[in-house]
Amino acid sequence: MAETLYAAGVKHVFDTNVLIDGFQDDFSAQAKLVEAVRDGELQALVTSAVVREYRNILRRLIEDPHYTDRIEDFLHMATEVEPVRVEIEIDDPDDYKFLQAAVGGGAQALVTSDRHLLDVGHIDGIDILTPQEAWSRFSDESGSSSEWQDFVRGIGIG
Predict the structure, then answer these.
(1) Rounded to the nearest 5°, which phi and psi values hold at 109?
(2) Rounded to whole angstroms, how far apart are CA atoms 121 and 144?
(3) Of 12, 73, 95, 136, which has the most beta carbons under 10 Å away?
(4) How far are the Cα atoms of 2, 91, 107, 109, 126 from residue 41, in angstroms, in the given order?
(5) Each residue of 2-20: pLDDT tens digit?
(6) How many angstroms separate the CA atoms of 106 and 13, rounded?
(7) 130, 111 Cβ separation under 8 angstroms
(8) Which parts of the chain sit beneath pLDDT 70?
(9) Are 78 and 37 in contact (CB under 8 A)?
(10) What are the pLDDT digits (tens) for 51-67?
(11) DSSP letters of 53-105?
(12) pTM summary value
């Protein structure tokens, strides 16, 4: 695993929908982000409220033991932070826990597919990104996409 300035210092908070959507397609941005956390290439921040939601939702929606193990690895790699109260109005009060984790942990990004959070755009210098935007930013800055393109060309596909 190659250490990069981007990966070494970048902290992300992941909305539960990112973990759920990662289950549906191993090649999705969501799945790649989960793997980057598991591999220590990205740092995930959580609070106890975020972990509770992850566990409750995943227990109800995900029955694949392999994916459950991947999420357990993800949680093992995550760093627990103290939530910080945020003064912003959003449509879904259940989403405050992700904003509080991001601010409390000094995250660079909150990754979500939730329109309520995406409409905020940013808070306290923290970007709120779609999984595709977050993966693109990570792969561009860490060199992951160019390494993959080099590999594909090397085996004669690209």
Answers:
(1) -150, 145
(2) 25
(3) 12
(4) 8, 33, 15, 15, 19
(5) 333 344 468 999 999 999 9
(6) 10
(7) yes
(8) 1-9, 142-158
(9) yes
(10) 999 999 888 988 888 88
(11) HHHHHHHHH---HHHHHHHHHHHHH-EE----------S-GGGHHHHHHHHHH
(12) 0.83
In the block, which residue shows the tokens 């090649």?
27
44, two tokens: 């995930």
- For the chain, report the end-to-end CA distance as a whole number of angstroms: 24
Q: What is the pLDDT of residue 56?
A: 92
Do residues 120 and 90 touch, judged by C-beta distance below 8 A?
yes
Please state the φ and ψ torsions of residue 110, each to the nearest 5 degrees.
Answer: -110, 125
The helix/strand/coil state of 143 is: coil
**Interatomic CA distance for residues 153 and 135, integer angstroms:** 21
The alpha carbon of 59 is separated from its chain's Cα centroid by a whole number of angstroms, namely: 19
Residue 144, C-beta contacts closer than 8 angstroms, at least 6 positions apart: 138
How many Cα atoms sit within 13 Å of 25 on the Cβ side? 7
**Phi-psi group of 157: left, alpha or beta (phi > 0 → left; psi -120 to 50 → alpha; rest → beta):** alpha
